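pasting for the record
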Amino acid sequence: MSGAGDDLSYRVVAPDDEQFALNAALAYNRPTGEAHRAQRTPSPEARRGLYRNGRLVTQCVLLPLRIAHGGGGTVPAGGIGAVATPPEERRRGYVARLLREVCDELRSQRAPLGMLSAFKESFYRRYGWATFYEARRFSGAPAWFAPFRAQQAGRWERLDESAAATAELDAAYRSALRGRFGPLERDAVWWQTRVLHAGDGSPHWAYLWRDDAGRGRSYAIFSIERGERGQELRCREAAALDPQARAQIFALFSMFEDQCVDVVFNAPADAPVQALMSDPLRCAMVPGAMLRMIDVAMAMEAYSFPPDVAGRLTIRITDDWLDHNNGVFALDVEGGGARMTRLSDGVDADIHCDVRTLTQVYSRYLRPRTAAAFGLIDARSRPALALVERLFAGLAPYASDWF
């Protein structure tokens, strides 16, 4: 994928290339042995590297993902993780080159989105990535959840890591987050290695709540860790199918009153958790992962729009890093599907925005009217802005996977 006369080459990292684990250990402050274990999952086929004269100068893991678009389906994406450059090779533009090669690879595979967890958001913003969801992080003493004990019913069951257990968790996960953009499609290996275990391989506790009919309707996956104030219950993930099932999670939190000083958990930005509490929990807004539309036309055509909304919208997109996205496009929507075609640059488009803002509208993180009010979208007509608002209506986006 590298240009002629260039001493840089992009390729899959060989399984016996020890430099990959050493670079990761240094970049992420991990023991070398832990870095070696981490690089065995995922498989070596996911490792990518940029080589200069045969030496690995920067690297990443590229994971094949499918991201829920909120309409009952998914969009293919690439998960870019574990980006690392040894200190003697930094500030030479190698990461930018690596990202460009990754984008070319994903586009060739018809995966129009790239997702990553940033060490510094401003670094990736310059290449067109944008935060695509926020989570609310709540914390409070277990005793604050004691009122929910009055709603206790059914029973909690501690789960193992069997295929049957992960299948039940996955069914509840998909149902609880239905309608949101952002949740990843998970297989059994993802559940076992990335949800039921921490990054260092230590297991999380997983509990499933069953109602009186034996149906699994909520779960909590957590660990007990030392915090600044003492022992904390840190909830890796919790999901509930309905209010009764959610109350059982809060009742479970209260059972740690004699063991922990705090319970910490995340929820979608639009979840009215405080309205459920007698006294408000401590709360902080936490930026989530970043997303990029690698191929805007392909991404739009993979989306699921409201089936009762139809129309044509012309958009002038500014993308100063991936030129194939730069220009004027017509988006024709009908019956839930869309077709996007490039128009002449001389067309006076209905909407003007850059690729980062478009990505945030696409994921429903940013409401179009709000974006226009803050100058992020230049809307040339009110009907056009109203159409964009209807096309990207829905719940706030949310995800709980990191890589």
